[in-house]
């Protein structure tokens, strides 16, 4: 391993890990994939990305592992698993991180890095990745990529805590690797601000799609649901502003316009609910609501959505 030819590990090879891992591997990077339930299928048939942007992509012989003990230590680790598994992921990430490793958490929600940081050695850098992508897994080892794909990166914690220049250099290293792989990427000066900006979209669309059994086209095409989307967006923006994160005044409206131009999309929480998987309620709802409470901002529509989703989750999983 070296800075010139880093070893990249993918932890959680679903829609997110699968897409970015395939893109990086096809660009010539040394990529290793950790899988569990889909290991046999991927080892036999490879990783397939059916992309509306890049065309059909097949990684016929990916370097795959079902046991982290058999996977080599990596310079970079991209965490594509859902935040619902973070309690179990910490020790695996620590086991696979080479000295000075850079761990990039490609998850939705707030404070997701905080759940992983206690497991990591002090020598490991922890970064956050904000993915703007329409993708889902349609079968074991098969990713459907409908649109977008960019990743914004921010520094969370590690040896470069007090060195802004070193942080930017690390971020730009990953940005350049993504760009070489055909993935648009940028370094963000504030990870916390970037996460709140992504929550402006995730809080309304993820929850309402799961609750109402509807994709983005239906949610925006109906006057009632569109008004709820906009009202929830405004609550998230108000909380972010109260926390000191500058959100452009027209940001929510621009997100609505951009979403209307996308193909009809069913967000990840929709798939989680209707495939009977745990929904990311803590990271996408509980953590932002706690933050709002700390600064005295009311988010009644967001809280109602959260409580309703929690009822459905409890009813399904106990």
UniProtKB/TrEMBL annotation:
Keywords: NADP, Oxidoreductase, Pantothenate biosynthesis. Residues 192-313 form the Ketopantoate reductase C-terminal domain. Residues 8-157 form the Ketopantoate reductase N-terminal domain. The keyword NADP applies. One of its GO terms (molecular function) is 2-dehydropantoate 2-reductase activity. Coiled coil: none annotated. Pathway: Cofactor biosynthesis; (R)-pantothenate biosynthesis; (R)-pantoate from 3-methyl-2-oxobutanoate: step 2/2. Its EC number is 1.1.1.169. The keyword NADP applies. Pfam families: ApbA, ApbA_C. It catalyses: (R)-pantoate + NADP(+) = 2-dehydropantoate + NADPH + H(+). NCBIfam families: apbA_panE, PRK06249.1. Catalyzes the NADPH-dependent reduction of ketopantoate into pantoic acid. Belongs to the ketopantoate reductase family. This is 2-dehydropantoate 2-reductase. It comes from Pseudomonas songnenensis.
């Amino acid at each position: 391993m070296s800075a010139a030819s880093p070893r990249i590990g993918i932890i959680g090879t679903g829609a997110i890990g699968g897409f970015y891992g395939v893109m990086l591997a096809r660009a010539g990077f040394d990529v290793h994939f950790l899988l569990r339930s889909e290991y046999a299928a991927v080892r036999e048939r490879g990783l397939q990305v059916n992309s509306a942007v890049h065309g059909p992509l097949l990684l016929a012989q990916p370097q795959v592992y079902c046991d982290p003990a058999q996977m080599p230590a990596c310079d970079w680790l991209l965490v594509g698993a859902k935040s619902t598994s973070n309690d179990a992921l910490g020790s695996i990430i620590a086991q696979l991180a080479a000295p000075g490793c850079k761990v990039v958490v490609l998850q939705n929600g707030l404070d997701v890095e905080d759940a992983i940081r206690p497991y990591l050695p002090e020598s490991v850098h922890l970064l956050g990745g904000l993915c703007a992508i329409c993708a889902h897994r349609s079968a074991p080892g098969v990713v459907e990529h409908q649109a977008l794909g960019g990743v914004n990166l921010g520094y969370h914690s590690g040896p470069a805590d007090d060195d802004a220049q070193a942080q930017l250099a690390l971020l730009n290293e990953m940005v350049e690797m993504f760009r070489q792989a055909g993935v648009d990427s940028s370094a963000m000066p504030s990870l916390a601000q970037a996460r709140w900006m992504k929550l402006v979209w995730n809080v309304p669309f993820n929850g309402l799609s799961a609750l109402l059994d509807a994709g983005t086209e239906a949610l925006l095409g109906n006057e009632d649901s569109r008004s709820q989307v906009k009202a929830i967006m405004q609550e998230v923006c108000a909380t972010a502003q109260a926390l000191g994160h500058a959100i452009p005044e027209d940001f929510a409206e621009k997100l609505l316009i951009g979403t209307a131009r996308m193909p009809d999309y069913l967000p990840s929480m929709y798939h989680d609910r209707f495939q009977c998987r745990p929904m990311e309620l803590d990271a996408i709802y509980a953590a932002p609501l706690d933050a709002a409470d700390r600064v005295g901002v009311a988010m009644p529509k967001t809280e109602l959505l959260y409580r309703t989703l929690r009822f459905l989750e409890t009813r399904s999983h106990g």
